[in-house]
Amino acid sequence: MRYRWRQLLITITMEKKISEWLEEQGYPLEMRVARIFSQHGFHVIHSPYFVDTDTDTYRETDLIAVIEKNYGNFTFRTTFVIECKNNLKYPWVGFGSKETRLSKKAFLVQRCSNVQGNRFLEVLFESKFNFDNSILFKVPDIPIYNMAQAFGSNSDAPYSAMSSVSKATLAQIKKAYHYMYICEIAMPLIVLGGKFFISYLNENSESELKDCPSSTIIWRNPLVGMPHTIINICTFNNLLELVKKIKSEIEEIQSATKFYLENTPYSS
User: Fold this and answer.
1) Does 223 reside within a domain?
2) DSSP states of 134-185 as a string?
3) Is the Cβ–Cβ distance between 214 and 235 less than 8 Å?
4) How many Cβ atoms are within 10 Å of 65's Cβ, its own excluded?
5) Is there a contact between 171 and 114 (Cβ–Cβ < 8 Å)?
6) CA distances from 117 to 44, 131, 133 (A)
7) Domain housing 252
8) Does residue 208 fall inside a structural domain?
């Protein structure tokens, strides 16, 4: 009897340790993020691999979430390439500056997209789409130009995440780059399990720090083949609300596809 109780205690202790380890590694965070996207109509792929062109080796990213709509033989596809980081112990800080702003058009068209996606974004800019209310394409008031991890020894963790998710996004778009019957726009997204703050200077050149549930990074690193790599970042606590708004916005953008098809040749 004592042996059974001892074995039960060992099992309970082991399960607790494994659960704690899983949370620290961020695996449950990935699953929770995947579930939110899946529940809102996205097709989710776990742990996809891509070729890192810098090292010519296969690497893994966390998630890909895809939503698409067909118009005859033409497909409009929006893809999110997602890195999940469980930073509960070590908050991330984004460094923001109003001087980092891009024009509305540059912020829209400098996205990782295939040939048709790039043409579509050009047409979308000329349309009646309301960019001032956009979640994906409104230029943020204080764009982020770089990030760092507070505390801990791995202050470069944000840089690694930005690099990895950007390379994975470019690899994703290359699969359909020249397909004339697919319009694909791929967006890198970093989801944090912990806190995210933005640091910037106010009008008096004093340092300000504020809790930031979501924001946009305008990174001067052309990893996706554009002058800037534009990356969305949000905390998990804000993800559900964000995905709901993104889904609604994608449906609004898709409504412009008919106009695009009528006014843009898409045969090679």
Assistant:
1) yes
2) -SSSSPPSS-EEEEEE-SSS-TTHHHHHHHHHHHHHHHHHHTTTT-TTEEEE
3) yes
4) 24
5) no
6) 21, 18, 21
7) 2-263
8) yes
Q: Are 111 and 214 in contact (CB under 8 A)?
A: no
* 50 neighbors 61 (Cβ within 8 angstroms): yes
β pairing state of 196-201 and 92-96: parallel
Look at strands 207-211 and 214-219 and give their pairing: unpaired
Phi, psi of 144 (to 5 degrees): -95, 135
Closest by alpha carbon to 250, among 91, 77, 121?
77
pLDDT over 90, % of the chain = 67
Q: Cβ(65)–Cβ(79) under 8 Å?
A: yes
Least confident of 86-95, 227-236, 248-257: 248-257
Q: Which two tokens stand for residue 100?
A: 């980092």
Give the list of residues 6+ apart from residue 241 with CB closer than 8 angstroms, or none: none
- Residue 268 within any structural domain of the chain: no
Rounded average pLDDT over 209-228? 95
- Rounded CA-CA distance 160/166 in Å is 10
Contacts of 143 (CB under 8 A, 6+ apart): 96, 97, 98, 100, 101, 102, 215, 216, 217, 218
In angstroms, the Cα distances linking 230 to 169, 189, 245 are: 11, 9, 19
Q: Rounded to an integer, what distance in angstroms lies between the CA atom of residue 216 and that of residue 219?
A: 9
Looking only at the bridges linking them, the beta strands covering 182-192 and 229-235 are parallel
Report H helices in 26-156: 27-39, 104-109, 115-126
Global confidence as pTM: 0.90
Phi and psi torsions of 209, nearest 5°: -135, 130
- Please state the domain count of the chain: 1
